[in-house]
Structure formats: C-alpha cells, structure tokens
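Hi U.,

Before I forget, here's the chain from the pilot set. I'm dumping it here mostly so it's searchable later in email.
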Amino acid sequence: MSAAAPLAGIRILEVGVMLAGPYATMLLADLGAEVIKIEPPGGEISRQVSDSYFASLNRNKKSVVLDLRSETGRQRLGELVASSHALLVNMKPSAIKKLGLTYASLRQFNERIVCVALTGFGLDGGDDPAFDYVIQAATGVAMMTGDPAGPPTLPGYSSADNSTGLTAALGLLAQIVSGRGGQVDVSLRDVMLSQLNYRASAYLNDGAPPLRYPMGAHSYYVPAQLFLTADGYLALFITHDAFWRSFCAEAGIDGFPTMAERAAKRDEVLAVVSAALATDTATGWEARLRPLGIPVSAVRTLPEALEATPEVVVTAGDFRLVRSPIRIDGYEPDYRPAPGVDEHGGAVRPAAHSS
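Structure:
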C-alpha cells in the first residue's frame, strides 16, 4: 500500500496559463495537493494548443470555471481562498492586480493564504511580454549557447518556463511551511539569472564574460563537451584527474595529468581526445567507459531516451506522460487525467482550512 501523499490536505488554487504556472502546480498535485485550476469561460488557452500539451501540464487537477471579471466570480474566488493554503497565478502584473489576485487583496478572506505571482520581470516589473525564448535572449542564455562561429542558440525545450515553475513551487511550499500568509514574487528573468550562478560570478568578481566554445564545451573543465565519433556524438565530462587517468588508460593516450594543465592546453587536449574517440562509435565508447565510472553518454534523440527508460512513462487517462521527477520512498502518485473544462465546478466546495 502506498504511503500517504506528502501534501495531502493542502489545497492550492491555480490561475495559470500555458506552461510555468501549470507545471508548478502539477508537481504539487502529483505529491497529493488538491489543486483547483480556475479557468475562464471557455477554458484555459493552452487547451487550444493540443490535447497532449494540456495533459502534460494539468494531470491530477480539478477544474472550476470562474469569470474573475464578474462580481459573482470574485465572490466565489473569495470563498475558495478562505479554505485554501495558496494561490499561484501567472499572468501579466497588471492583470494580477486588476483581478485582485494578490495577498493584499485576498487576505480579507484568509490571513494565512500564500499568494504566488509568477511573472516575466516581477510583480512590479511591468507588463513587457516575457515568453520563454524572450527571457533566454534577455538574460544572456541564448548568447552563450551554440557554436562560437554561429548565431545565438535556444535550447530545444522551455527551460525558462520549467525552471521558473520549479522555483515557484519551492517558494509556495516554503511560505506555507512558515505558517504565515504573504506574497511570493517569482520572475522568469530572476530565475534564469540565478541559474547562471558560476557564469555570473565569474563576471561579477573576476570580470570574465562568458565565452562560447565549440561542441558546447565547459568553460572550466577539459575535456567536457560533445565529440564526434566514428558513428554519432558522445558527451564526455571529465571533471577531475582520476576520471582522466581512467579515460587515458582505456583510450590509449597519455599526458596532461592535471586539471590545470588540461585547461591551459585546451586545444592540444581536445585534438588528442578527438582523434582517440574517432576510432569507435558513440555507443561503443559509452559501453567501454561507463563501467570505469567515467561520466559519458551517447547523444540520443528524445524517442530513444524514452525507449531506454520505460520506467519514467506513466498513464493518466488516455495519455502516456513522463512521471513526476520527485520520488518519495513508499509513496506513488495516482496519475489522474487532466480535467475537462469546469469538470469540478459543481463538486468543489469550501473546506475547512488545514493549518
């Protein structure tokens, strides 16, 4: 029998659109929180993207339609706030304030409500559009990604949205644990700048702007990048001298024994390593180096990765999805399908607030 859900008894309201907000609350729903997705008449806009898109971000939730522009909708929201622990909203700051979705507006219904505003530039940062790709461009992520001889590059998934969703979920839980209500302010811009930690620190403290290296090479560790093999690409990430010695023994090369020397002679090291790796395939090197404890992987497509890890795929209704990344001993989420529009509108009632 599965253990009790870690967040059982926690009720969270979501006024979220597209990705960042819904992803945050889905992670909390997977952990057992009762997440009530408040949708406008007609449903949240991401329902128009595709059924699989919506399913990937909204499983395990309930749906209640409220017109928050109406007096009736605002009154109903207040009733739900009175019996909830938190409200997470991702919209433009002006819309959040106009609709009264802040702690200052909602504390009249519940002094201990936690209100999380997930925006592009902060609750007081203005309404400039802040989609994922825009934030990656604005914070330097795109400029430091890609081949140095090519244009700036964006990753193939919504890294800013997903990272901000994770951060918002953390902030929400932290404030609930504190036992105090209040406003939590999380922005895509701040999250992405925070994730540039050592890159930002190198510039702020040493005056070293980030450089782009071929094959996505690491700025400190050598060799730590992608390499072309006899068939396919290989990611090799050697961070210390013990890894290097093991690699050299298997690859039949020598020299450059210290991390400092490898960094100082980057081009020479990469030439030697590239020549060695060209003698076998990516999967061949993976099979040879992994048993030695060396961090290495053949570059795979997403379909190949999913086929190699069937244990991460779960079923929620008619959809196969990637399971929650949070695994808790003894607890297994019950993966329920994403709700239909207003599916729980007549069933969700104010409940006794659990402290």
